[in-house]
Amino acid sequence: MSGEHTAPETQGVTVELLAALDLGPEIEGMAGRQLRMRLVTIEPGGVFGPVHDHKDRPGMVFILQGTITDHRNGIATDYGPGAGWPEDRNTTHWLENRGAEVAREVSVDVVRLG
Which residue from 107, 73, 105, 108 is spatially nearest to 90, judged by alpha carbons? Predict the structure, then answer.
């Protein structure tokens, strides 16, 4: 079995909610949805797992500091500052910080309220 399916549980990760907006009053048909922006910090050796998907929870990630390794489809891809990726309904992955420096990303996604 590939490492993609055996990702460890989350460890060494802090998540800070930066902003949130109820989309119901903003866009017809979006009742019960929220646009949120979070700052995710992954310590060296930290893991944002386990394997999870983004069905019904699209988002975008932008790396501010350090390097984050994104594991999906059996491939590990490193992203450094100024880079990022989309997370759509076909995204199934987990993240880790293999480096010696703290990694920080801004994550923006649409989630169901409650």
Answer: 73
